[in-house]
Amino acid sequence: MTERNEALVIGAGVAGLTTAVCLAERGFTVRVVAERPPRETTSAVAGAIIGGPAIADETEAEAKFAPTAITRPWHQASLAEFTALAKQPDSGVRLTRGRLANRQAAVGHEWAAHLPGYTPCGEEESGGFPVAFRVELPIVDMPVYLEYLASRVTAAGGSVEVGVVDSLEAAAAEAPLVVNCTGVGARALADDPKVFPVRGQHVIVENPGIDEFFFEQNPGPNSTSYFPHGRRLVCGGTAEREVWSMEPDPARTEEILARCIAVEPRIAGAAVTGVEVGLRASRPQTRLEVEPVGSARVIHNYGHGGIAVGLSWGCAQDVLRLALGGATAEVVS
């Protein structure tokens, strides 16, 4: 017979592991079960920058250049957590100066004036974009960070296991609390046709000495970004709606490198060390709500699109509140 504080978290990406940390460190006995280990999830290939614009669906024609009323609390909570984590050298998180840019000249950036280190860029340093400014934000070396989160789960008495969960009913038979953090897998597991993949591809090169990030805010199938993580430079990116292929596309690789080189010529001589592909779990709205299944409560936490890392702590904290029987200010379905 299971104890009432037992929790089964399905998924070992950033949403699942962050949720597991919040539950385990609050006294729940947590098992994380996922088809792939943390370093093989889509989260592992993310950029990732925290506190920039909230672009929940990178394929939509209308850009969301600032956090929406729905996601703002999740962003604020996550930015606070990541800023604190930047003080821990083993976390993979660090505060980094860099540029946010936009190809639409009419778009203002007053919303960003409160960000740390905010400084508008002159034409000569805008990377060829009509709008650009420098800020100091946390960026995350995701493979390191996911291992850090997993270590916090196990340190709190939990476990992270590779396995298959066939159905929510089967999960509900194992624990009184189940948290569904399966990303694109929720399309089948939760029978949710609103979930769709947005394929992303990054190119990894040897860092030629770059210590600032660059991130283009524009939604759409192509955008320019690069993030320095020690000897690695993660160059991006793409956002291909409803594409399920996990195979690297050589043509996309060349396009990504060309865009990044146009902003930072030093990348032209950098050796390519890898090409990574992931499927962002997109949805018209993030799903964070409780569903009774059998005698268990299932809390859904998926559909974060291209900003799963930036929403992770805020969403996980709301999952914890729901797990403890409380209400959350933003339950989106």
Automatic annotation (TrEMBL):
<dbReference type="Pfam" id="PF01266">
    <property type="entry name" value="DAO"/>
</dbReference>
<keyword id="KW-0560">Oxidoreductase</keyword>
<dbReference type="InterPro" id="IPR023209">
    <property type="entry name" value="DAO"/>
</dbReference>
<keyword id="KW-0285">Flavoprotein</keyword>
<protein>
    <recommendedName>
        <fullName>D-amino-acid oxidase</fullName>
        <ecNumber>1.4.3.3</ecNumber>
    </recommendedName>
</protein>
<feature type="domain" description="FAD dependent oxidoreductase">
    <location>
        <begin position="7"/>
        <end position="319"/>
    </location>
</feature>
<dbReference type="InterPro" id="IPR006076">
    <property type="entry name" value="FAD-dep_OxRdtase"/>
</dbReference>
<comment type="similarity">
    <text>Belongs to the DAMOX/DASOX family.</text>
</comment>
<keyword id="KW-0274">FAD</keyword>
<dbReference type="GO" id="GO:0016491">
    <property type="term" value="F:oxidoreductase activity"/>
</dbReference>
